[in-house]
């Protein structure tokens, strides 16, 4: 059974390992330590299988990142993470690589729309699409 709970110190190493598998420029462990309170993890027993980071500023919520261990994809874990953080009061926004069709598709499923492009947002020069979700839009 998968449970969604706040990130705790003991789970940071597993989050860092998934981050390394999922991103070309993984965030260092120090960032997860500093931002521990911003993250939720999906756990199956003691194993972390995915995570999502959010930052709420008044009525706007920024999704910092989300990842699911490749071995656990396609089982609705991202869906569970999204359902935990989304609500119909706040505006949500995020950045996603223009080439990341999978993530873009997942976010579109949950009501996000592309609103702009940030040129050369990533360290390798790739642009980011900015996606926004407005309740009931
Ligand atoms: C994006 C990611 C988090 C999705 O995780 P996941 O647990 O496999 O996704 P889920 O199984 O919960 O699927 C969520 C929805 O997206 C759809 N979906 C998932 N993967 C898909 C794919 N490859 N193609 C099309 N649709 C897909 C599912 O059908 C599902 O739709 P539903 O809610 O209508 O059933 C995962 O692929 C990942 O970690 N990617 C690498 C990291 C990344 O790119 N993160 C985003 C950075 S902005």
From TrEMBL:
Q: Which reaction does it catalyse?
A: N-terminal L-alanyl-[ribosomal protein bS18] + acetyl-CoA = N-terminal N(alpha)-acetyl-L-alanyl-[ribosomal protein bS18] + CoA + H(+)
- What Enzyme Commission number(s) apply to this enzyme? 2.3.1.266
Cytoplasm as a keyword of this entry, yes or no, is yes
Task: Name where it mostly resides.
Answer: cytoplasm
Q: Please name the InterPro entries in this protein's record.
A: AcTrfase_RimI/Ard1 (IPR006464), Acyl_CoA_acyltransferase (IPR016181), GNAT_dom (IPR000182), YpeA/RimI_acetyltransf (IPR050680)
Give one Pfam hit by family name.
Acetyltransf_1
| A GO term, aspect molecular function | protein-N-terminal-alanine acetyltransferase activity
Q: Which GO terms describe its cellular component?
A: cytoplasm
Key words, A-Z: Acyltransferase, Cytoplasm, Transferase
Ranges where the N-acetyltransferase domain occurs:
2-136
Name its cellular compartments.
Cytoplasm
Q: Which family does it belong to?
A: Belongs to the acetyltransferase family. RimI subfamily.
Q: What does this protein do?
A: Acetylates the N-terminal alanine of ribosomal protein bS18.
Task: Supply the name of the protein.
Answer: [Ribosomal protein bS18]-alanine N-acetyltransferase
Task: Give the species this sequence originates from.
Answer: candidate division WOR-1 bacterium RIFOXYC12_FULL_54_18
